[in-house]
């Protein structure tokens, strides 16, 4: 029986782990990967103490700090289920392992929202990507499409302008990104912007060959030959594992109060998976710290 189980090792989970270890809680950190969304981030200019740092480099710093402490880790494992048991929580991981904790922090962050069109799943990793920062360099001198009209999509297009031969920016709505980004992308002769276009299908067998679009006003169908598709239509919270025991808001985020409490005694949540406004590394790290300190207080109360 652990004192605390932390699910998710992004900025919030890693920070929670350090705070828990410093309170000498017997802690298990379980995560699909280390770093979370920081791994997808090219440059960070707003994490205090660093004027500029690349995402993977900051992730490594966080990881090294966690490794200074005696924390049990299960990395490369998905938590499939979280159950409420009499004296705490039981988690089931992909490999069939079962672990129990008196308290728990859910810090599972967010994942990219899929388009849900034919060809998307089949061509994932074979031309379909959800991270221009990570995969952009594989599409050097090739034609690509970016789907989306918000900041992530425009940032992706801006990034791809440096390496790809041509970028089709396809958005269902008018562009909603910051004007500075829109102007930069519009100024490039490498980008064709198609707003009010719906993506119907991604074509290809072993690799991506094209995309089928429909103009939502004229209903005209367009077939465009491209070799890569970057889906940048937002993120959804990884809250499924606790959806039956906590309250989620309409976005699927775990509802917490300002002490990171979910409403289930001993179960805390932190970072992007929660309803806390502003999804940023510094916010997620702070929330992770708060959640661990609250879990510590709860365990002290249990011990009395
Ligand atoms: C492209 C991009 C650029 C960004 N740039 C910046 C920036 O410049 N500055 C800034 O402050 N913020 C930036 N952000 C936002 C920032 O990265 C997030 O706010 C932050 O990473 C959230 O941290 P988190 O720990 O809550 O979640 P995440 O970083 O999402 O981490 C969640 C962790 O949980 C794991 N996980 C998920 N589900 C499970 C499961 N079922 N079982 C086990 N493990 C699971 C994941 O593998 C991951 O390790 C950016 C985000 C993106 C996508």
Could you provide a short overview of the structure?
The protein has 304 residues and is an alpha/beta fold. Flavin-adenine dinucleotide binds next to β1, α1, β2 and α6.
Protein architecture, described:
There is one protein chain. Strands 1, 2, 3, 4, 5, 6 and 17 form a seven-stranded mixed β-sheet that branches. Strands 8-15-9-10-11 form a five-stranded parallel β-sheet, covered by helices on one side. With 304 residues, the chain is α/β, with parallel strands linked by helices. It is built from six helices and 17 strands. A hairpin with a 4-residue loop joins strand 5 and strand 6 (98-106). It is elongated. Helix 1 runs parallel beside helix 2. The protein binds flavin-adenine dinucleotide. Flavin-adenine dinucleotide is lined by residues 7-13, 30-33, 36-38, 40-41, 44, 46-47, 78-79, 107-110, 133, 238, 241, 271-272, 279-282, 284.
List the helices and strands and how they pair.
Layout: E1 2-9, H1 11-22, E2 27-34, H2 55-67, E3 72-75, E4 79-85, E5 88-93, E6 98-106, E7 110-112, E8 128-129, H3 132-135, E9 143-147, H4 151-160, E10 166-171, H5 179-186, E11 191-195, E12 197-204, E13 208-215, E14 221-225, E15 228-231, E16 235-237, E17 267-269, H6 281-303
Helix pairs in contact: 1-2, 1-6, 4-5
Bound molecules: flavin-adenine dinucleotide.
């Amino acid at each position: 029986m652990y004192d605390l189980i932390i699910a998710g090792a992004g900025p919030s989970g890693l920070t929670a782990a350090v705070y828990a270890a410093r309170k000498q809680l017997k802690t298990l950190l379980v995560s699909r990967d280390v770093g979370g969304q920081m791994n997808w981030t090219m440059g960070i200019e707003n994490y205090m103490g660093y004027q500029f740092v690349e995402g993977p480099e900051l992730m490594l710093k966080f990881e090294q700090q966690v490794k200074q402490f005696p924390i049990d880790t299960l990395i490369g494992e998905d938590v499939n289920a979280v159950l409420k048991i009499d004296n705490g929580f039981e988690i089931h991981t992909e490999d069939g392992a079962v672990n129990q904790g008196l308290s728990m922090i859910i810090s599972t962050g967010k994942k990219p929202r899929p388009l849900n069109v034919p060809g998307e799943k089949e061509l994932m990793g074979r031309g379909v990507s959800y991270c221009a920062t990570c995969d952009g360099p594989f599409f050097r001198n090739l034609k690509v499409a970016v789907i989306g009209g918000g900041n992530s999509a425009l940032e992706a297009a801006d990034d791809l302008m440096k390496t790809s031969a041509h970028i089709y920016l396809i958005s269902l709505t008018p562009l909603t990104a910051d004007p500075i980004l829109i102007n930069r992308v519009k100024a490039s002769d490498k980008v064709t912007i198609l707003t009010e276009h719906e993506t119907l299908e991604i074509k290809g067998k072993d690799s991506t060959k094209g995309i089928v679009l429909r103009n939502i006003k004229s209903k005209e169908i367009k077939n465009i030959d491209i070799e890569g598709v970057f889906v940048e239509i937002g993120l959804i919270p990884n809250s499924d594992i606790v959806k039956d025991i906590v309250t989620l808001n309409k976005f699927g985020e775990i509802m917490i109060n300002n002490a990171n409490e979910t409403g289930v005694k001993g179960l805390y949540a932190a970072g992007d998976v929660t309803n806390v406004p502003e999804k940023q590394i510094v916010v997620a790290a702070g929330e992770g710290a708060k959640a661990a300190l609250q879990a510590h207080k709860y365990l002290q109360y249990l011990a009395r």
